[in-house]
UniProtKB/TrEMBL annotation:
Coiled-coil features, chain-numbered ranges: none
Residue span of region Disordered: 305-343
Positions of the Guanylate kinase-like domain: 380-571
Biased composition (Basic and acidic residues): 305-316
Any one GO CC term of the record: membrane
Protein name as it appears in the record: MAGUK p55 subfamily member 7
Domain L27: 13-66, 67-125
Major subcellular site: other
Similarity remark: Belongs to the MAGUK family.
Matching SMART domains: GuKc, L27, PDZ, SH3
Biased composition, class Low complexity, residue ranges: 324-342
Residues in SH3 domain copies: 230-300
Length: 586
């Protein structure tokens, strides 16, 4: 372009410059010769002409030939279209075809690649010419924002090296971000005419709090600033967070409160300690600060250490050594004992229910990356009902199968016990030898298994798969310790926590229904108060250990209401895109 511009200079003056030269001639009589000569030489100089030409060309490119993408969110729109199509698939062949087309990985990748490019700005930007500039002075920008009830959406800090007040972060979607005028790293020199040199961030904050109307910032722009790009990461929170009670958050007002199970859109992970996020359901809201995964992990480890120290102190004198299990080593037994301190001996026990079942507490539950998993017509996710023993998992499962036995099925369990009279192989149980079952357990072929009165019982992963492949919805109601074995990319289960109501309502509903305690096969009596108490306690414990794995929950107080909710859940699983671990979504 330079060559072209220079060539052009030999024959054409830039029209604006020609005009200036002409008016200079008219002004000859008004000024002294020296100044006129200087200006004439400058205006006719090749260098200035070349510069003006370059400026005009670049400005023209920016103005006329700019290829602007029509939109940069086609991926998001595709997701929304898929969501709507998924509800229409059963009605219309065209919808089904469009649904399948939009699910194709190469089409999705194409749209995401388009968005990634569309979001970039490849055109040069010429900075506005400063009105007046002192050669010795740094560039300064003056930014005016009108104060409203909305927070500014920026945090400040003292730069460790220079001691200057700088913009630490800009909250995505906040007032400062939307203004496009303030950037991370900008140095704050003045706020409303008050010099902030030597002041602390707290001092600056009180200047801001005491200001009314328009706030004027004098800032030195940072060098490496750039538009903040939103990340696309979505996570499921595995813990509750309240910035109000967090003593370490840099700014409580900038914090985002959330609860375990909430889906969060992480818009920025630039800061290794404080991420910016907004709740998925509040797409246009200003982002808020949340602890990063690394920070939260550290906190949990710290809390655990403190707790262990406190426990150690309180146990001093009563025991000589503290046994710990190394992190990540599961205590789930592959074949458990037949007795438990919490249950009568007569109940079939697939797992040891002693208090040692807290292996998951040793994992650090912070955030799990998730993505929308779209239903595949004819291939349904298994629905797994988890809950305290006796809460009603099997009752709900049986009712759903009775409603549509062709569609809902449960796998036939395996056993090593001999077949009894009246039993049919493959109906009540699949009967196998102990050697075979031991070998299959060893090979990891069972999603749950246990021992009762010297015989093994279990459910094989293969039997779940064959129900899924047959186009049926596989319903499972295993012991809660099977969650880890079940929650795999191969099975992609949907986990529902069946919860009991409070003790009084639990007792009332079960007594009115004359519900039989399932802890004792040979006894037709109802539940004891102790069993109800155990059920409530056990449910709290399951929630504590595995709460973050559940996709939904059902309160099983009134059976009819609980069943309706289950029907609603299975319909959603069959038809709607739902959040699942991102590793399950190719
Ligand atoms: N909402 C309810 N109201 C009244 N009775 C109920 C309700 N839910 C379940 N029951 C009854 O409670 C008893 C135990 O239910 P169920 O066998 O389904 O428990 P479970 O969770 O499968 O536990 P287990 O593995 O010990 O059998 C059954 O008699 C069942 O009919």
């Amino acid at each position: 372009m330079t060559a072209e511009v220079m060539a052009a200079n030999d024959t054409h003056w830039d029209p604006a410059l020609s005009k200036l030269i002409a008016s200079l001639k008219e002004a000859e009589s008004l000024s002294n010769d020296q100044e006129i000569d200087f200006l004439q030489t400058l205006l006719e100089s090749k260098e200035l002409n070349a510069l003006v030409n370059v400026h005009s060309k670049v400005a023209k490119v920016g103005r006329d030939d700019r290829l602007a993408p029509i939109l940069s969110t086609s991926g998001m729109i595709m997701c929304e279209v898929l969501e709507q199509l998924s509800q229409q698939c059963h009605l219309n062949e065209d919808c089904r075809e469009a649904f399948h087309l939009l699910q194709k990985p190469h089409l999705q990748s194409l749209l995401y690649a388009h968005d990634a490019i569309a979001q970039k700005d490849f055109y040069p930007h010429l900075p506005d010419l400063p009105i007046e500039m002192d050669e010795d002075e740094e560039t300064i920008k003056i930014v005016q924002l009108v104060k409203s009830n909305e927070p500014l959406g920026a945090t400040i800090k003292t730069d460790e090296e220079s001691g200057k007040i700088i913009i630490a972060r800009i909250m995505h979607g906040g007032a400062a971000d939307r203004s496009g005028l303030i950037h991370v790293g900008d140095e704050v020199i003045e706020v409303n005419g008050i010099n902030v040199e030597g002041k602390t961030p707290g001092d600056v904050l009180s200047i801001l709090q005491n200001s009314e109307g328009t706030i004027t910032f004098k800032l030195v722009p940072s060098d490496g600033r750039g538009a903040q790009r939103e990340s696309k990461v979505r996570v499921r929170a595995h813990f509750d967070y309240n910035p109000e009670v967090d003593p370490y958050i840099p700014c409580k007002e900038a914090g985002l409160a959330f609860q375990r199970g909430d889906i969060l859109h992480i818009v920025s992970q630039d800061d290794s300690y404080w991420w910016q996020a907004r709740r998925e359901s509040e797409r246009t809201a200003r982002a808020g600060l949340i602890p990063s995964r690394a920070l939260q992990e550290r906190r949990i480890l710290h809390e655990r250490t403190q707790r262990d120290v406190a426990d150690g102190e309180s146990k001093k004198g009563s025991c000589t050594s503290i046994c710990t299990t190394p992190p990540g080593s599961p205590r789930l037994r592959s074949s458990s004992s037949t007795s438990s301190c919490r249950q009568p001996k007569t109940k079939k026990i697939m797992y040891d229910l002693t208090e040692n079942d807290d292996f998951d507490r040793e994992l650090i539950a912070t955030y799990e990356e998730v993505a929308k998993l779209y239903p595949r017509p004819g291939i349904y996710r298994p629905v797994v009902l988890i809950g305290a023993p006796g809460v009603g998992r099997n009752e709900l499962r049986r009712r759903l199968i009775a409603r549509d036995p062709e569609k809902y099925r449960s796998p036939v369990p395996y056993t090593t016990r001999p077949m009894r009279t009246g039993e049919v192989a493959g109906r009540e149980y699949i009967f196998v030898s102990r050697e075979k079952m031991d070998a299959d357990i060893e090979a990891g072929k069972f999603i749950e298994h246990g021992e009762y009165k010297g015989h093994l019982y279990g459910t094989s992963a293969e039997s779940v798969k064959s129900i899924v492949n047959a186009g049926c919805v596989c319903l499972l109601s295993p012991h809660y310790q099977a969650i880890k074995a079940l929650r795999t990319v191969q099975l992609k289960p949907f986990l529902v926590h069946i919860k009991p109501p409070e003790f009084d309502e639990l007792k009332k509903t079960r007594t009115e229904a004359r519900a039989k305690s399932t802890f004792d096969e040979s006894n037709a009596r109802g539940f004891t108060d102790e069993e109800f108490t155990d059920m409530v306690k056990s449910s709290v414990r399951i929630d504590f250990l595995y709460g973050h794995f559940f996709d939904d929950e059902i309160l099983n107080a009134d059976l009819v209401t609980a069943f309706e909710k289950l029907v609603n859940i299975v319909q959603r699983v069959e038809n709607e895109p739902l959040w699942a671990p991102s590793s399950w979504v190719q």
